[in-house]
């Protein structure tokens, strides 16, 4: 096993950047940024400019890389706010449908899922969320008054985005079809893929992960205008978010303009191909 590298000072970090071909014009500013962000975290934003030998492409500039980092930070905040509304919408719709078809606690019955469902694992996820949130008043109320039994419209308030995706994908196909058609005018395969994409997107944003120049694991299905080479880039995930967003007017009047303004503000440093945005992306991003 290789030995871990020793820590280096901010001054040494700056020299390391320079030695690899990154232009640093203001040492004080560079050191200040490194002291706030961490060299290791910031170096991920240099990946698009890295050559096979570990050095950087000509004209790689620290100030530009920092601006890309700032673009990414603002973008995470914008996306996360939109995902919040999607998540709350999914909880409401899934819970209402399931309660009226299977009853208040039908989600606890393994017979109400498809053959792929692993009920013990699902129950374990639910139990973990109850434990993690045991101090919340509504959780305490159901633990004390109802012996820890939660109706589906309450327990879904504890579901993560990943659990909502899991819940939907494990429903019988007839239920998946009805929800996909009724909520989004689509088919289960498409909805399942959008849910998986937004699960990844939500988790990256929640943990302050990098969106820029990222390869995503999930591939969205049936999104007009999405080219194959952009399926695993940010644009595919953002189109999935758009497809799931419940309010067309609000997307067009509030979310889309914020995207457009952010992209325009940083157009001098970002590269569309790094995030999978095609030329003419503006028309594709409107609902």
Description:
The chain is an all-alpha fold and 287 residues long. Among the domains are: 75 residues, no CATH class; 102 residues, no CATH class. The chain is built from 14 helices and no strands. Helix 4 crosses helix 10 and helix 10 crosses helix 11. The longest helix has 41 residues. The chain is globular and about 65 Å long. The model has no long low-confidence stretch (mean pLDDT 97).
Question: Which SSEs are present, and which pair or pack?
Answer:
Layout: H1 10-19, H2 27-37, H3 39-43, H4 62-102, H5 119-132, H6 137-145, H7 152-155, H8 161-169, H9 173-184, H10 188-206, H11 234-244, H12 248-265, H13 272-275, H14 281-285
Helix pairs in contact: 1-2, 4-10, 4-12, 8-10, 10-11
For the secondary structure, the number of strands is 0
Low-confidence parts lasting 5 or more residues at pLDDT below 50? none
Return Rg in Å. 23 Å
**Helix fraction bin:** 55-70%
Q: What is the H-and-E element order?
A: HHHHHHHHHHHHHH
Report the end-to-end length measured between terminal Cα atoms: 52 Å
Structural class: mainly alpha
- Quote the average pLDDT: 97
What's the tally of helices? Answer: 14
How would you describe the shape? Answer: globular
Please report which band the strand proportion falls in: under 5%, 5-15%, 15-25%, 25-35%, 35-45% or over 45%. Answer: under 5%
For the sheet with most strands, the description reads:
none
Which terms would index this structure?
mainly alpha; 287 residues
Summarize, please.
The protein has helices spanning 10-19, 27-37, 39-43, 62-102, 119-132, 137-145, 152-155, 161-169, 173-184, 188-206, 234-244, 248-265, 272-275, 281-285. The protein is mainly α and 287 residues long.
């Amino acid at each position: 096993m290789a030995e871990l590298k020793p820590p280096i000072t901010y001054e040494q970090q700056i020299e390391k950047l320079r030695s690899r071909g990154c232009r640093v014009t203001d040492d004080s500013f560079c050191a200040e940024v490194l002291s706030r962000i961490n060299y290791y975290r910031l170096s991920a934003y240099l990946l698009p400019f890295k050559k096979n030998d570990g050095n950087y492409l000509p004209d790689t500039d620290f100030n530009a890389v920092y601006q890309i980092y700032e673009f990414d930070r603002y973008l995470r905040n914008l996306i996360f706010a939109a995902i919040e509304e999607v998540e709350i919408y999914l909880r409401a719709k899934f819970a209402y449908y399931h309660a009226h078809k299977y009853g208040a606690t039908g989600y606890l019955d393994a017979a109400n899922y498809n053959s792929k469902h692993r009920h013990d694992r699902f129950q374990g996820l639910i139990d973990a969320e109850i434990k993690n949130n045991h101090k919340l008043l509504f959780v305490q109320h159901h633990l004390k008054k109802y012996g820890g039994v939660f109706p589906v419209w309450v327990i879904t308030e504890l579901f993560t985005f990943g659990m909502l995706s899991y819940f939907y994908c494990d429903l019988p196909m007839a239920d998946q079809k009805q929800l996909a058609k009724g909520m989004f005018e689509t088919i289960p395969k498409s909805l399942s893929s959008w849910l998986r994409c937004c699960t990844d997107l939500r988790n990256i944003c929640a943990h302050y992960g990098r969106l820029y120049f990222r390869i995503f694991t999930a591939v969205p299905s049936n999104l007009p205008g999405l080219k194959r080479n952009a399926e695993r880039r940010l644009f595919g995930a953002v189109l999935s978010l758009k497809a799931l967003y419940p309010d067309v007017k609000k997307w067009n009047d509030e979310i889309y303009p914020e995207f457009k303004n952010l992209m325009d503000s940083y157009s001098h440093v970002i590269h569309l191909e790094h995030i999978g945005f095609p030329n003419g992306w503006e028309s594709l991003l409107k609902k």
